[in-house]
Amino acid sequence: MNKVELLSPAGTLEKLKIALDYGADAVYGGVSHFSLRIRSGKEFTMEDFAEGIKYAHERGKKVYATINGFPFNSQLKLLKKHILAMAELKPDAFIVATPGVLKLCHDLVPDIPLHLSTQANVMNVLDAQVYAAMGATRIITAREISLKDLKEIKKELPELELEVFVHGSMCFAYSGRCLISTLQSGRVPNRGSCANDCRFPYEMYAANPETGTLFKLEEDEGVGTYIMNSKDLNLASHIKEILDSGVVDSLKIEGRTKTAYYAATTAKAYRMAIDDYYEDKLDTDKYQYELESLQNRGYTDAYLISRPFEKHDTQSLDFTMQLGTHQVSGQVDENGTHFLCKYKTLPGDELEVHMPLGSKIEMVDNEIGTTYERDGRVYLKFKQLKAQNGKIWESVHSGNVNPIELPVKMPQYTFLRVPSHPDMGTYPKQ
């Protein structure tokens, strides 16, 4: 039986490696402004992206290159050069968003599979047939699509791969086709520079043009002013329904501009869910424990399982972002011998060790600290905070760039985390 693919975001080379180490079967990312996330694309050089592809292929995994921006006429010559240059790196597919770019890629590099971006808004059999005829081997369906409609597409086009989003930020606009930040700040969302204007609080006013009267409309307490702020997608509790359908080939996680911890945690949670599904031992509490540790805007299961008009809980109206249940206190280096502090750490603090799935470390008790297990999780307590240069610190904070020695070697990119402080609350409401 072929397992469904787990596809994770890769905003940087480090995040690419982390996502693969934590369980992703494939990652997606891009280089330059032809990628729909130029803020993350700028962090990838061609050399880095080539190294990432090599890293993935050595592990039997895949990399999909995003060329899913919406180009202007003045950029078409540069786009052709970019397509050819990216093809030389041997990615496993290109992700494109427009019919013109799809055709151009098919003409220039016919041997590279082409995946159609969710921004093409495929919702039905007719559109899927058109894009398949143009050379698309996979459709990343619109986020508003239902499982029922996915089944209809697969029935008519059984060879066409279908990919769906299962986790990440949701856009209040239809499949991300938004122009609000273009209007307000000149940053064009469909060309990779969305300013997330929908996340801002807005005040409503009423005006009388005849008298020049203007007055503010007061909000009811608890209703909020984040009127376009969508909750984050979380379908970890619906893996059974999705995979039971038999029509989904790839589960996609959004988030190339998010943190390394996000890349790790989402990959680990959905890796567990997928593997448990095939072993008939699903435990949604286990996956949600991980996902609730992430900063989020509140979670929703959105539209894949329920139709859009049936959902009334998809907006976060009174805040833009809230803390998760845990705070990252440190990230282990590639050697596995030291960690860099991400949050205040003191000797005696109990830190949960967040490792790639299946990883194990030795339980030790030495002059640096102790490691131990409790309730199926691994924990660490430092006795002393010894820097790589030999200095002993009474405490370390996020601004401290000195690598701190670990009591035992850990897998690269392991994270140390603590429960979020109850007084930290949610992020400022701006």
From TrEMBL:
The keyword Nucleotide-binding appears for this protein: no
InterPro entries tied to this protein: Peptidase_U32 (IPR001539), RNA/ubiquinone_mod_enzymes (IPR051454)
This protein's UniProt keywords: Hydrolase, Protease
GO molecular function: peptidase activity
UniProt-listed GO biological process terms: proteolysis
Pfam families linked to this entry: Peptidase_U32
Similarity field: Belongs to the peptidase U32 family.
Name of the protein described by the UniProt record: U32 family peptidase
Lineage: Bacteria, Pseudomonadati, Campylobacterota, Epsilonproteobacteria, Campylobacterales
